[in-house]
Design goal:
heterotrimer, A mainly alpha (232), B alpha/beta (234), C mainly alpha (234), B: alpha/beta, Rossmann fold, 2 domains, 4-stranded antiparallel β-sheet, 10 strands, C: 234 residues, 8 helices, 82% helix, globular
Chain lengths: 232, 234, 234
Amino acid sequence: MSSQPRTLQILNFVSGLLLAAAAWMSLGYAPTERVMGAVQRVFYFHVATAWVGMLGFIVAAVAGVIFLVTGNLKWDKIGLAAVEISLAFFFIAIVLGSIWARPIWGTWWTWEPRLTTAAILEMVYLAYLLLRQGVEDPERRARFGAVYTLLGGISVPVTFVSIRLFRTIHPVVIMGGNPNAQGGFSMETSMLQTMLFCIFAFSVIFVTLFWHRLRLGDLAEKVEQLKLKLIQ
Amino acid sequence: MIEVRKLIKRFGLKTILRGVDFSVAPGEFVALLGPNGAGKTTFLRILSTLSRPSLGAVTVAGFRLPQDAAAVRRRLGVVSHMPLLYGDLTAEENLRFFGRMYGLEMLAARIDDVLEMVGLTARRRDLVRTFSRGMQQRLAIGRAVLHNPDVMLFDEPYTGLDQDASEMLDDVLREVAAKGRTVVMTSHDLARAEELATRFDILSRGVISASVSRAGLGANNLLDFYKQALANGQ
Amino acid sequence: MDNKRPSSSYFQAVLAVAWKDLAAELRSRELLSAMLVFALLVILIFNFSLELDKEARENVTAGVLWTTFAFAGTLGLNRSMAVEKDRGCLDGLLLAPVDRSAIYFGKAISNLAFMLLVEIIVLPVYSILYTSVSTMRLFTPAFLGVTLLGSIGYVAVGTLLASMAVQSRTRDVMLPILLFPVIVPVLVASVQASRAILQALEMSEVMAWVNLLIVYDVIFIALAFMVFDYVVEE
């Protein structure tokens, strides 16, 4: 049994530190927003987890394309790892968003483009995992998975555009410019610092988790190989 | 006509074929024998371009697989234990459909010939759904020879056939093989294989473990040879 | 051995596959009648669950119709691919020396034909059941055009996913689960465009959605064309 490589051990430690620091920055360092109050602090983790979800989504679609071109099963493992992490982090982002939306928008959930798209993306991921479960041959499973992530990778942005054609009430903090949005606010420097730091921290956490998930995949394969050796 | 060198086929971590070496000269009729799960169907699926080799070199009718699959398909006729026919089309319509897929010219005349050969001229306008298993299998052979292939692959063609139907199939297979075609047939029915084939290869545990020609078999019984080969393979 | 072999043109193969499906279906009518009865039942259920009185109808007609088409569509797609898989016919198609995407387009054309046939029957039935000013607009060229564009997008993705679904263990439940999350843009755009037409809104309002539909159709037909090989090969 190979132990974790040194770099990964360091990453574990750094990720823990960064998470603690990010929590401190968003709960202590950043000032309380004037209108929304303390609940606005959830925003920093919300943006950061949604960012990680997006990263995973993009990695999965790209890995799908590379797998189809090269046929190397390594890319299938990468795609699966990306989907699983993205699934979890988008879920966290949705929950955090709901916590924020309850007092600000007066509802846990609205059928607003980004929320709806995030929800549909979660459904795409669940369908992807179900599909994989139903296919025995690993190569076919990988091909089907890659084709489906590719379909999802193109259809989800189109979904976003199509729902966006409706009026949106999601606050666009970074790009600004939607007069109908409720709950938007202008960011002070320390708020911006906190947000950027959280995004950085979660990006590192993403890399760490990704690495762990890939190792897990390799170990699972080794177990399968050993099992097969026992049978034969 | 068929050249296979060190063919390996894996499904994930499972290795089905572990380095098959196999070659067939033009006009030979090779019976591929072996226990269930030995990889016969997988091997035939690779020869028929339906499955890709994991490793190794495969050449069929002078073309390499999987690179020149389309060229191989044009020269290849396949009969499997499934009929590969549409039940809601008539015998004639099935042949017309596959003829079009192969881009055949003078299709109507060719269909007449093929139906005559497999003895289904009288039933040409009946739905394949209403055919007996034996008739379906004969039509399946008609479908496979429609484009006049040089190489024919039969995967357990006798599955589910009764005595009469099997004998009729024997006649059709003989006729198909007689035209100088190269044939590879998998079967677990040793008696049928012994009647038709000119060479007997045994596929066991993912490799060809023994091979004997009809002449080499001499007065010996194929069953004895088969048992011997499997016992040696253990 | 002759080196010049006939080969079918791409379009000939596409048409052959589509013709084969239509001929079989016109004879058995299994798939069409199942889709149609199911579609009418969905409308019946909507009638009770939504209490489709005059005012409600004005707003939900487009939604009810597209939901009906989407549900009935999965039934047809599933069946159309299951026919290929069950009797090994998919192998028969793959053995033909044609580009795999020709098989995809052939299947997509016949699936689209089935879908349009169901729509052509459901629309008048709906307008008879719920006569009003707006349902008279169901038969304007604009509405029919939107229906066609929406159906093309639906079938383009549906045919691809159905060929994956039938090869999975949980095939009967897999198609709607795979299809609906990626088909959302088609449904949103079709429903919005249809609603705008039924409520006689300005054409500019319709055109935004029509453009989205065209973009979706083009992208996904191109994508399916590129990846269909990966879905059927082994």
